[in-house]
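Moderator note: this is an archived Q&A kept for reference. The question asked for a predicted structure of one protein chain; the sequence and the answer are reproduced below.
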Amino acid sequence: MNTQNNSLSTLALQKFKKNFWGVFSLGIISCIGLISIFAYVFAPDASKNANQMHLSIHSKSPGFKVQMLTIPSGINSEQNVFSKLFFGKNNTDTEVPIQSYQISGNKLNYTEYASDGLKGLEKQIDLSKFPNSNYKNYIDNRSFIFGTDKYGRDYLSRILIGSRISFFIGFVAVFISLIVGLLMGSIAGYYGGKVDAFIMWIINITWSIPTLLLVITITLALGKGFWQVFIAVGLTMWVEVARVVRGQIISAKEMQYITAARALGYNDYRIITKHILPNIFGPLIVISAANFAAAILIESGLSFLGIGAQPPMASWGAMIKDHYNYIILGKPYLALIPGICIMLLVMAFMLVGNALRDALDVKG
């Protein structure tokens, strides 16, 4: 039996490897996953939530460059390496975009950046503000690959850090939906009768409520926030899993190996978990891939409505909401970049789901 399972798994893996778009999409998902985990390593702005605002350089085009003066605050931030790596650093220094600077005695005179050919304010600061009066280490040429958003934040950094919510909501939502769906579907399919009728009634009631409306209701009940959205999306996606599991168990429980298991005196829990569920794992993988894509779209919609992740937390859906007006103001990329990221991630999950469906199709 184990040899047969191994051979079927090997055959499915070989079929999956031959699917170019499936393998390519899995590579995209893996890359986005690594970026989301180590977002602060790749992000040019490694401050928490990439929230360094520079209103004087707001809504700048991709490739924009400016001189940046960093004024030390003198406050030592007690933060360990783990916290900086995964949650960003607590940046207490002040960053000022400047047009020019010069040294006069023990003063640093600088002109703040101003757009549209205007001249910015002229200010000065004592060189003693800089450690060892070494001001040169605090002036650098900053390049914004994706430009800046309407608050003057580095857009590339916001995109990288925003991938965390869109990526991880899929895992959390699918995990919750699998737990609830497997439990409800297994009980309904295996025991049947009134138990099945009652659970199917719950499933049909849940199914009849529009998904987005149900998510909004749960989110408002739990409160606005990061984890509340994850839980709300997961609690609305279990019905698809439950229906698939129920149907598969109804078919599987009439098979001869289940009859043999009952004859050997195995209890219901062992029959369901050890004999039935492993044999319906294929359809669960496929529906989980589809639920990943659906969870990403739902979270993006919630963030667009202002119910999802709250500012200053970066989210692709919230970034579209903040900048969709710029589509008609000559800077459509501010809304298109996060939109393309969402489309790319959703499409990758859908293509992987299709590839898994073909690989696990025993008739093929």
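Archived answer notes: Residues 2-34+157-359 form a domain with the MetI-like fold fold (CATH 1.10.3720.10).
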